[in-house]
Structures are given as C-alpha cells and as structure tokens.
Amino acid sequence: MALDLQLGQISQMAFGYWHAQVLFSATNLGVFDALADGPLGCDDLAARLSLPAEPCRRLLDAATGLRLLVRDPDTGAYANAPASARLLTSGSPESISRWVDVMSRWYGPWGDLGEAVRLGHAVEHRDTRLGDDPAYVEDFILGMHVYNARTAQGLADTLEDPGPVRIADIGGGAGTYSIALCKAWAEARSEIVDLPGVVPLARTTVADAGLADRVTVREGDYYRDAFGTGLDIVLLSNVLHQESRDKGLDILRRALAALRPGGRVLVHGHFLEESRTAPVFTTLHNLSALVLWSGGRSYTAPEMAELMAAAGFADVEVRRTPEPSARLLVGRKPA
Ligand SMILES: C[S@@+](CC[C@H](N)C(=O)[O-])C[C@H]1O[C@@H](n2cnc3c(N)ncnc32)[C@H](O)[C@@H]1O
C-alpha cells in the first residue's frame, strides 16, 4: 500500500495555488523579461514595469523564496535564477512562458472544478474559448509547440522510417509532430489540418523548421471536413481527449475513410492506467478536460483500442513512448 500522506504534504496541496500564482503573476507582469538583461533593484524594476514598489517587492521576495529569482545579499538587486533565464524569458528559445500564461488562464476554469463535477460539464469561461482571442490561440499553439517538442522527438525516435508516406496530421496545431516525423523520415510528406486561426502559426513553425516543401498546412474542421484520400497515415495527437466518445468515434471513422487499405491511424496522447488512478498527471488531465472542454475525457489504452476497433480499425496495438504517461495506439485499415 502507498505510504499515507503527512500533514505537510496535504498542506502543500492546499497552498499549491499560492506557488502557482507567484509564477503566473511574475510571468504575466513581465518580471523575468525585465531581468533578462541583468539584475535590477526593486525600485528600478517596479518603475520599469509601472508597478507600485512595495507590493512589487513582496512578489519579488516570494519569487526569490521559490528560487525563481536570486537576490544579491549586498546590493539587494534581483536577478533571474538560471532556470528562469532559460525557461521563463520570452526571448529564450527554450522559453515555456507562453505555456505558463496558458496555465494561468486555465486557473479560472480550474477554480470552478467543484462546480463542474457537480454539474457534469464545464462552467463557461469566455477567456478560455480558443476561437475568441487570437492572443490566447497564439499562446496555446506556440506554447504547446515548445512544451511538446521533446515528446514529439521521442515519438519519432520510437517509430521505424516507413519510407515515402503521405500523412494527415489532424488537429496538428503548430505541426510539432509533423515536423518531428518529417525530420526523422526523409521521404515523408505531411498535411496539417487545423482551425483557421492556427493555420498561419503552423505555416511559420513549419517554415522555420525548413520543411515547407514537405509539410503543408490546410484549414479544416475535423467535425465536418474530409481528411484526404488514399493516405498512408492519419495522425491524431493530443486530440481525442478534447472530445466526447461519440465525436471521437466520428473522427476515427473519418480517419478510416481517408486511409488507403492497409494505411494506419496513429492515436497519441496521455492515457490512464487501467486502475484509472494513475499516472497522476493523466488523472489531472482528465479533470482539465472536464473543466475546459465539454465532453472531453481521458481514456485508458484498452478503452481507446475498443473505440478504434468500433470505428473499423484492425490489429490495434498499444506502444509505450519515452514520455511515461503517453501512449501511441496504432490501428490498421483492413485491406
Ligand atoms: C491539444 S492540441 C494538439 C496539437 C497537436 N496535435 C499536438 O499534439 O501538439 C489540439 C488541436 O486541435 C485543434 N482543433 C480543435 N478543434 C478542432 C476542429 N474542430 N477541427 C480541427 N482542429 C481542431 C486545436 O486548434 C489544436 O491545434
């Protein structure tokens, strides 16, 4: 049996959002970016960010306590800790600050978790409706791109090069997975299909990756539009958990229709273990789907395999990937 929790661990959970809010506020207010060029005293930093000095100092001190910042014991100047300089300044290539901003937006819906559990569906929060705000779309799509880059690389590393295949990457976002696969597979071509606001962002990331000749981007709605014809691979990465079972089944049937006989669907994402109580990340992801996307849910791998079989796929196999909570399910269109 797992060890019982201690008082301190339960307290840590209860106070967890205090920590998160220091990170969110310091990122949103521009603290890490303001310190990107070097240390600043509180008054200079507050003036640069147009903040009153005293509350700003409280935030800086808490961020220092949380090791996001360091304070010079002699001058009192604040500087970014090395990890913050690398991961939280917007000019750094490894920056996850966009993703931190997305998590900060999700704080509202997560604050209504109890209500969502009581109602059985998400409580409406306008500022987390993707279609409504281009700045949110950009943070969500480009933030996810950086956040998922390593996972996408890990997935590409586990798959054998299938040669000159044609892929449709449905709900492909910034094209993170198309980019990783087409870098690994020299003869593959991929078409990213996503909503209108996402298309220009994906075109930019694909061009930046030097793959515009083999990865194209098309506007499309996976509820309505065909995914293509005679394709070798349809990729559904981190998509089906946003949808109800019925909509997921419909999307899988569309994938089947778009494939050539023998073609494969790749369903990738975070899955629950059969106990449904682990991995912890996916149990929380499952709640995130509840508070953010009406009808969204996480699956166990056998549940997803069943859904894929119901859509008409054969020989469904479940593969592990380097990301511990992620799985890849591969299904084949019967000949
Ligand atoms: C969680 S992201 C996954 C992105 C990418 N596949 C990945 O794994 O990084 C879900 C994607 O589905 C897209 N999406 C949502 N509804 C859609 C729809 N009706 N038609 C096409 N794409 C949609 C979103 O714009 C977003 O890019």
From TrEMBL:
Task: Pinpoint the O-methyltransferase C-terminal domain residues.
Answer: 166-314
Q: Which SUPFAM superfamilies has this protein been placed in? A: S-adenosyl-L-methionine-dependent methyltransferases, Winged helix' DNA-binding domain
Q: State if S-adenosyl-L-methionine is listed as a keyword.
A: yes
Listed GO MF terms: O-methyltransferase activity; protein dimerization activity
Pfam families to which the protein is assigned, alphabetical: Dimerisation, Methyltransf_2
A single Gene Ontology biological process assigned to it is:
methylation
Keyword list (alphabetical) reads: Methyltransferase, S-adenosyl-L-methionine, Transferase
Signal peptide as annotated in the record? none
Residues in domain O-methyltransferase dimerisation? 12-90
Q: Which PANTHER family match?
A: O-METHYLTRANSFERASE CICE (PTHR43712:SF2), PUTATIVE (AFU_ORTHOLOGUE AFUA_4G14580)-RELATED (PTHR43712)
Identification of the protein by name: Hydroxyindole O-methyltransferase
According to its UniProt entry, this protein's organism is: Streptomyces termitum
